[in-house]
Amino acid sequence: MSIPTQWTPTHGEPFRPVPYRPPRMPLQESLARAAELRERMDGRRTVRQFSADPVPEQVVRDAVACAATAPSGAHQQPWTFVLVKDPEVRRRIRAAAEEEEQLSYAGRLGEEWLAALRPLGTDEVKPHLTDAPALIVVFQQRYWLGEGGEKRKHYYVDESVGIAVGMLLSALHLSGLAALVHTPSPMRFLSEVLGRPVNEKAFAVIPVGYPADDCQVPDLVRKSLDQVLVEV
Ligand code: IYR
């Protein structure tokens, strides 16, 4: 399993701006694209039942590359994406996740949380972790760790990685793949199974694939634009 080389920060370098002149999109095109994108994004659903069919790996890599264009605190890009294809590693992740989830659903979550989850139909059984042909495990680099053990602070890590995951989900969906943001809790086992360094903390496990032929999703209703947008 390859471990990406750590990025070296440009810490302390002077500001050397370069021109940015993207061509302005014509109004009609902008309106049409926005409306189309809105409709396509509304078609995204979190999927928990995956087909075992393989996915085009380049599509997944391109989606990760899109995610890695996210803005980040001080442009520190504090993320690592581990693409897990090996079925044995996926089995180990599933076994460890289910062990934690059994404790969660048996009471650790508490009645109020369980009631909130009831309409989603989730439980401690996580077949998506082995059925989906790929998992993207997203790690946050809580701080930068140099080769010689030196550390540097990272800023707004939660926000940065959250934005990157949003962009990842959008890229996967718009490229025709389904995904699920799974956050087993606690997630320490992911660092152990995937051999990640101490400065990295698991953020989410994202199974990626095609929905199973008999896939079902909860009958969710999204808030309307009026309910989420305040214009002043
Ligand atoms: N991590 C658990 C529980 C869970 C929590 C939330 I908040 C969800 O939106 C869904 C599930 C699980 O994966 O089942």
UniProtKB/TrEMBL annotation:
<dbReference type="InterPro" id="IPR000415">
    <property type="entry name" value="Nitroreductase-like"/>
</dbReference>
<keyword id="KW-0285">Flavoprotein</keyword>
<keyword id="KW-0560">Oxidoreductase</keyword>
<dbReference type="InterPro" id="IPR050627">
    <property type="entry name" value="Nitroreductase/BluB"/>
</dbReference>
<keyword id="KW-0472">Membrane</keyword>
<keyword id="KW-0812">Transmembrane</keyword>
<dbReference type="Pfam" id="PF00881">
    <property type="entry name" value="Nitroreductase"/>
</dbReference>
<keyword id="KW-1133">Transmembrane helix</keyword>
<feature type="domain" description="Nitroreductase">
    <location>
        <begin position="43"/>
        <end position="210"/>
    </location>
</feature>
<keyword id="KW-0288">FMN</keyword>
<feature type="transmembrane region" description="Helical">
    <location>
        <begin position="161"/>
        <end position="181"/>
    </location>
</feature>
<protein>
    <submittedName>
        <fullName>Oxidoreductase</fullName>
    </submittedName>
</protein>
<feature type="region of interest" description="Disordered">
    <location>
        <begin position="1"/>
        <end position="24"/>
    </location>
</feature>
<dbReference type="InterPro" id="IPR029479">
    <property type="entry name" value="Nitroreductase"/>
</dbReference>
